Amino acid sequence: MTKREERENKFDLIVIGGGSGLDIANAAAQQGLKVALVEKGRLGGTCLNRGCIPSKLLIHSADIIETIKNADTFGVNVKGVSIDFQKIMTRVNGITDSESDQIKSGLMQMDNPKIFSKECRFVGEKTKLTIMEMVMIVMQTKSALKTLPQTK
Predict the structure, then answer these.
(1) Where are the domains of the chain?
(2) Which of 7, 17, 46, 151 is the most buried (most CB within 10 A)?
(3) pLDDT, one tens digit for every residue, the chain (152 residues)
(4) What is the DSSP letter of 20?
């Protein structure tokens, strides 16, 4: 690796996860830190790709179906209603994929934060990262249910 490549691959902050980690990465970059953003999947995190937004889009389709089923309440007669779930899912995925692609496109036009579309993992206890002067890592984690101990 040349000296130039070595300098280009040194970071003040590594953010693992392109969901809410995007906010942290952008804020740190605006403060002058050189930031690496590592995301193995689609940018936007759980909310955009598998959670909030796709759920709301599906619920909206269900609300429309419910309105149509109750259309006679409003004096509207509807016959021959069918549900094309594949078309609903194609619409949902099209919207979320487009949003994720826009986020990635915006980041690719910037020098900082630098995006790495790869899986990131720790390889050992207290392993020195050669790409960093100062070790500061932010990880986005998944929620998990914990079992609470029984109380007497």
Answers:
(1) 3-139
(2) 17
(3) 566 655 667 888 888 888 888 988 999 999 999 999 988 899 998 899 999 999 999 999 999 999 999 999 999 999 888 999 999 999 999 999 999 999 999 999 999 999 998 887 767 665 555 444 445 555 555 555 555 555 44
(4) T
3-state secondary structure of 28: helix
The helix or strand, by DSSP H or E, that contains position 119, with its residue range, turns out to be none
Domain 3-139 has CATH 3.50.50.60: yes
Q: Which two tokens stand for residue 73?
A: 């309440």
Pair 58, 92: CB distance under 8 Å: yes
Rg over alpha carbons for the chain, rounded to the nearest Å, is: 22
Q: What gap in Å lies between CA 72 and CA 84, rounded to an integer?
A: 22
Residue type, 123: V
- What are the DSSP E strand ranges found in the chain? 13-16, 35-38, 114-116, 137-139
